[in-house]
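Q: How do we represent a protein-ligand complex in a form that can be generated token by token?
A: Start from the inputs.
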Amino acid sequence: MTPRSGTDLPDVPLFCAAAAAQGLDLTAVLREVVESQRYVLGPCVQAFEKAFAAYVGVPYAIGVANGTDALTIALRGLGLGPGQRVLTVANAGFYSSTAIRAIGAEPVYADVDATTLNLSPAVLTEALAGPPLGAVVVTHLYGQLADMPAIAALCRAAGVPLIEDCAQAHGARRDGRLAGAWGDVGCFSFYPTKNLGALGDGGALVTADAVLAERMRALRQYGWGAKYEVVMGGGSNSRLDELQAAVLSAKLPLLDAANASRRAIAARYGAAFAHLPLQAPRAEAEDYVAHLYVVRSAQRDALRAHLTAQGIASDVHYPIADHLQPVQASACAGAHLPVTESACAQVLTLPCFPGLTDEQADRVIAAVSSFHERAMPA
Ligand SMILES: *Cc1c(COP(=O)(O)O)cnc(C)c1O
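Then emit the structure tokens for the protein with pyridoxal-5'-phosphate bound:
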């Protein structure tokens, strides 16, 4: 195959957010909202909140402007603020760190499990025995549900609130219990490339706690209890709009099928890569919704260059661990996270999205295989 220049569009993209790729024509949905003259926090948002709460299996869902706001509002809703310590992981793109810093609290980083790259229950156990934590944020990274039976039990026993970052895990479940239904509150993003994606920014909070739901509902809109009556400090404008809510309601019924097709691609890759010197995601069960198909390779950068030359898009989620980000590296100088740091140097995301054809998947497989044939002569 001829080498390609870096400016060519890839033949196999990393994502496809087009609704049409799922056989969905949103024109009528959009027109209805345009003609309704209700554009923010109206009946479409209410209908979506109801449907999404039912899908996750919790009583309350609250639409917000994006996933980062969801995390921030969850922390504020739980009463956290300056001076408090919040445990999180350092390999999940800095989103939880952004929210923790936004409320003036201090992120405390826990290393991750070497197999799943999710929060390690053993590390959590140690952290809960140390100085007090105001909350724990667990991220279901790449669409793999963390070890929630263990993590939820540990937090409950310690009396520490548990926030789930479900931005990569819409629909992931274990024993019939979905991501977002394990902790005190679940936070979702509907950024277009997420497993459930809008046509712009969007997010949601889910909870079974009526009082917390009320607080978070106030916080998303200026701290209002009733209109123009501010009952809570720390409020902001983080509303979900009607267009996004209508799109999300149209796409929600397709989510489980879309996740199944992501998992089928992951299974195809997994079978093909089994004999290669790569660490591939192990799960093909319902606790993995293949938001990102991430392999680990000791030759990550060379593999990535090889894929680019073959017209195959890839990316690194994420190259810089949170405690090493320039904005706070000196404040975090004491953090020691060997599994996280080694993962950051090795992770590589391959194309995996509903609508990726078998032929495209086979091109990815051929390119990954040919790299290893070239790199590892017998
Ligand atoms: C995308 C994402 C977020 C942030 O969502 P936005 O809607 O972009 O603010 C938070 N956490 C994780 C794990 C994400 O992947």
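Residues 21-253 form a domain with the Aspartate Aminotransferase; domain 2 fold (CATH 3.40.640.10). The first strand starts at residue 60 and ends at 64.
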